[in-house]
């Protein structure tokens, strides 16, 4: 455990706290900061350790740590016939900052209609007008602009380097009738824009760096890391603590006011079910005594399914493939160290195109992002020797629903993660429309003489059936799992609109699992906003 206060680990682990938070990811770090600022005593439990690995702090380092044995949980999905019976890698962060320490740094707000739909589903207080102040509160965006925050804890910056190819992409977007936006998080979501990153200068700023580290000097905040949460302790219908294992020793961390699960859309339902809170028949099948029958726990898993297209460019001038291998990579390292620019500041998504592929939609149904890099066999990590770039196409609001369930009662064992991608016909049709939109964009006049040809899937995949076959055989997750412990106005929703667990006092969930439905885009900015609002809800309940 890493401490910045005088309290010893023994004292921390035997004392009572007002709040015990499980998970030092995006949401947990926000809560630890905000609740301790209110004067409450807070313990935050994290399975991983401090974010010391240098690749965490180099923006382009994501390519080397998505499958890191110590920094991630090493999850894989269950094979599914709809996606070629493949077990897909499913990275989730296991380190200070959670997935905000290993993600692609993209900071993207959802469409306002996303949150208004939440409110329509009984999530009172979660519409766009309700959440906008929390987006503003968490942001520190030097560019400013309508509805943007400029003084929050989380730094947000435009790309440190805008490759020349992105200007041509913008021109091509205009050529097919789509707008170009100076601020992708401004009033208009539809159209082309360059990405914004959770970065300050040359370095990533995870939620741990933005929220947790600045709060470590407070004597009322305790970080208990390298500790595996075993179960939630429930006594008399109330959550009173969390049992953990650290260094072979099992202890209970007690909570006077409440326990907050912020272990993510995989970790939170997994811990609930291991605690006997979930579908009673399912937990009993694994030898766990049911504590509370909550059939919705672990259900409603939603994620974005991405299909990557790659293209050959006419000249290395347009591509960074040669810049990220030695000896040129050495020059890029020097450039990053001395100027804070270059390919080491890049993300997997450098630009984004939001578009509607059907009439009558209230928000974009397709997001396409990417940048001037192409990878051997389409897997991030090893660039192709020829100049190229990659586009990732995904459906913004999938209809397919998956689940997170138990494989065993052991805390060390991964759960069964079944996203069930492309199991609805509407999703199949949408992804094909998205691939055709990408092709139309790349064929626009401003890219003539720059884009040489499509490499994957290639011109031989022309029919809808052929394109769908490629999508099923090669696609994967964009790492946006959500909605597995949803809030809602109906009795089947595990959480009420204040994120309190129905049927168990003193228990809340605050992370991406609480979403009723996935937003149209990357989810980290929404998680930060949800956690900011949750900190106010918890503080209000403490004062009541």
UniProtKB/TrEMBL annotation:
It holds the Pfam family GMC_oxred_N. Keywords: FAD, Flavoprotein. InterPro entries: FAD/NAD-bd_sf (IPR036188), GMC_OxRdtase (IPR012132), GMC_OxRdtase_N (IPR000172), GMC_OxRtase_C (IPR007867). The keyword Ligase does not apply. Residues 264-278 form the Glucose-methanol-choline oxidoreductase N-terminal domain. GO terms for molecular function: flavin adenine dinucleotide binding; oxidoreductase activity, acting on CH-OH group of donors. Transmembrane segments: none annotated. Its cofactor is FAD. Gene3D superfamilies: FAD/NAD(P)-binding domain (3.50.50.60), Glucose Oxidase, domain 3 (3.30.560.10). FAD binds at residue 95. Belongs to the GMC oxidoreductase family. This is Choline dehydrogenase.
């Amino acid at each position: 455990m890493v401490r910045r206060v005088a309290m010893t680990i023994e004292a921390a682990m035997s004392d009572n706290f007002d709040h015990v938070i499980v998970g030092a990811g995006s949401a947990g770090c926000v809560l630890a900061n905000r609740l301790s600022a209110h004067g409450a005593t807070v313990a935050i439990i994290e399975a991983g350790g401090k974010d010391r690995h240098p690749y965490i702090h180099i923006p382009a380092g994501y390519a080397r740590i998505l499958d890191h044995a110590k920094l991630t949980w090493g999850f894989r999905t269950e094979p599914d016939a709809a996606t070629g019976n493949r077990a897909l890698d499913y990275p989730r962060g296991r380190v200070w900052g959670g997935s905000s320490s290993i993600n692609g740094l993209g900071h993207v707000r959802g469409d306002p209609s996303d949150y208004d739909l939440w409110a329509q589903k009984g999530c009172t207080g979660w519409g766009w007008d309700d959440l906008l102040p929390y987006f503003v509160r968490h942001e520190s965006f030097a560019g400013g602009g309508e509805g943007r925050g400029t003084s929050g804890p989380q730094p947000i910056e435009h790309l440190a380097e805008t490759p020349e190819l992105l200007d041509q992409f913008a021109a091509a977007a205009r050529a097919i009738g789509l707008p170009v936006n100076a601020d992708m998080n401004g009033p208009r979501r539809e159209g082309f824009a360059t990405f914004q990153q959770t970065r300050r200068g040359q370095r990533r700023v995870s939620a741990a760096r933005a929220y947790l580290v600045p709060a470590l000097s407070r004597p009322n905040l305790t970080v208990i890391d390298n500790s595996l949460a075993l179960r939630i302790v429930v006594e008399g219908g109330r959550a009173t603590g969390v049992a953990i294992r650290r260094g072979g020793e099992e202890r209970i961390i007690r909570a006077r006011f409440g326990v907050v699960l912020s272990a993510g859309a995989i970790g939170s339902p997994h811990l609930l079910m291991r605690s006997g809170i979930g579908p009673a028949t399912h937990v009993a099948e694994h030898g766990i005594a049911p504590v509370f029958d909550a059939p919705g726990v672990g259900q409603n898993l939603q994620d974005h399914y991405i299909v990557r297209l790659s293209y050959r460019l006419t000249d290395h001038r347009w591509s960074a493939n040669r810049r990220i291998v030695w000896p040129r990579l050495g020059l890029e390292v020097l450039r990053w160290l001395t100027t804070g620019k270059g390919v080491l500041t890049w993300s997997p998504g450098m630009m984004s195109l939001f578009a509607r592929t059907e009439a009558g939609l209230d928000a974009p149904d397709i997001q396409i992002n990417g940048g001037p890099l192409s990878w051997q066999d389409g897997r991030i990590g090893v660039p192709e020797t020829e100049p190229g770039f990659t586009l990732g196409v995904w459906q913004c609001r999938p209809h397919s629903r998956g689940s997170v369930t138990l494989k065993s009662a052991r805390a060390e064992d991964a759960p069964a993660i079944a996203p069930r991608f492309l199991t609805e016909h509407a999703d199949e049709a949408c992804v094909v429309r998205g691939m055709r939109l990408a092709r139309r964009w790349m064929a626009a006049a401003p890219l003539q003489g720059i884009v040489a040809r499509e490499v994957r899937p290639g011109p031989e995949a022309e029919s809808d059936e052929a394109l769908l076959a490629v999508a099923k055989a090669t696609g994967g997750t964009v790492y946006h799992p959500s909605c597995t412990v949803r809030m809602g106005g109906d009795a089947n929703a595990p959480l009420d609109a204040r994120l309190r667990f129905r049927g168990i006092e003193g228990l809340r969930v605050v992370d991406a699992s609480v979403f009723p439905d996935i937003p149209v885009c990357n989810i980290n900015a929404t998680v930060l906003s949800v956690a900011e609002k949750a900190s106010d809800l918890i503080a209000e309940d403490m004062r009541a």
